[in-house]
Write a sequence for this structure.
């Protein structure tokens, strides 16, 4: 049914919209109630549309002439609900967690420690309930490290790195299974196609997964040899617009000396990117640190083996060492 429209301003500041159809040329009047005065009075104010359908009797003013009356409520523009005002503050809303392969090995009794993966899953579950979006990059050093095996039995560096990338896929699938066993929707995306076991990495799809509350695990590094999974973490963090890289390791953070060789080594609370590069601190490789610096991405280095550290790091509590950022005292309660 074709409908013709016309809009005429009224003297009261409202708008009159006339609609007519070919079968019945009598107008239906749409009155638009001004909302600018009600916005200032209450955040819960709503725009109201009142639709009056006139009868076929022209000029009639009785109540029987009107066949229907509808009120449509719409949210006001530029106003937030009371629920938003009571949301707990978080330092970051979208984070990237980098889990090293060595951390997954636990006490090194086996390649992957199920207790460690379950601990990670529970910590991630606790923060996703707060509405924080979590992506994960896993390493593969607990199974195979390309830089270590390069040159053995004629194995070139590129081939060794590709084997290491497949090791990260093994860790990712294991971690995904653990998370889904406790009800966390999880997706694995690989840098090169392994369609039978995981999705290919597509940036927009990964972001959409995060927006829907799913955890996304990035595997296979960058998909290129000669690049570490630390660099992959910095790259994926920048691509998905995450706000921080949380590097989970087997140490409490960054020390001024090697704590295994120096008993007087002190844990550093904050560092700048320049401190890491100038002092050649073995936190992340230089490519990863430079990428974080160029994109203003802070890095938090903390001990994965201490319970509650992941949730504390996400909320900005004092844990480990933060590089290129600052602490935030605002915290939220974990249920």
């Amino acid at each position: 049914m074709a409908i013709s429209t016309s809009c005429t301003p009224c003297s009261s500041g409202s708008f009159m919209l006339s609609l007519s159809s070919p079968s019945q040329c009598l107008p239906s009047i749409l009155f638009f109630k001004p909302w600018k005065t009600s916005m200032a009075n209450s955040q819960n104010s709503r725009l109201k549309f009142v639709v009056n359908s006139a009868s076929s009797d022209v000029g009639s003013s009785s109540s029987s002439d009107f066949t229907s009356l509808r009120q449509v409520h719409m949210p006001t523009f530029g106003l937030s609900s009371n629920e938003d005002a009571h949301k707990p503050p978080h330092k970051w809303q979208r984070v990237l967690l980098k889990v090293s392969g060595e951390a997954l090995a636990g006490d090194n009794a086996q390649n992957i420690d199920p207790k460690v993966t379950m601990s990670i899953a529970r910590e991630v579950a606790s923060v996703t309930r707060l509405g924080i979006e979590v992506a994960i990059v896993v390493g593969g050093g607990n199974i195979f490290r390309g830089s270590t095996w390069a040159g053995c039995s004629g194995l070139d560096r590129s081939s060794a790195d590709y084997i290491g990338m497949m090791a990260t896929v093994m860790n990712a699938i294991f971690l995904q299974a653990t998370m889904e066993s406790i009800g966390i929707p999880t997706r694995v995306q690989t840098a090169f196609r392994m369609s039978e076991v995981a999705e290919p990495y597509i940036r927009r799809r990964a972001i959409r997964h995060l927006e829907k509350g799913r955890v996304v695990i990035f595997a296979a590094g960058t998909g290129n040899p000669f690049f570490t999974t630390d660099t992959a973490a910095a790259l994926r963090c920048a691509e998905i617009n995450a706000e921080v890289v949380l590097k989970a390791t087997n140490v409490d953070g960054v020390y001024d000396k090697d704590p295994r060789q120096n008993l007087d080594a002190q844990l550093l609370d904050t560092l700048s990117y320049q401190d890491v590069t100038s002092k050649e601190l073995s936190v992340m490789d230089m490519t990863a640190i430079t990428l974080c610096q160029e994109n203003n991405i802070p890095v938090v280095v903390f001990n994965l083996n201490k319970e509650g550290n992941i949730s504390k790091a996400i909320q900005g509590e004092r844990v480990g060492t933060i590089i290129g950022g600052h602490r935030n005292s605002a915290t939220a309660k974990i249920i």
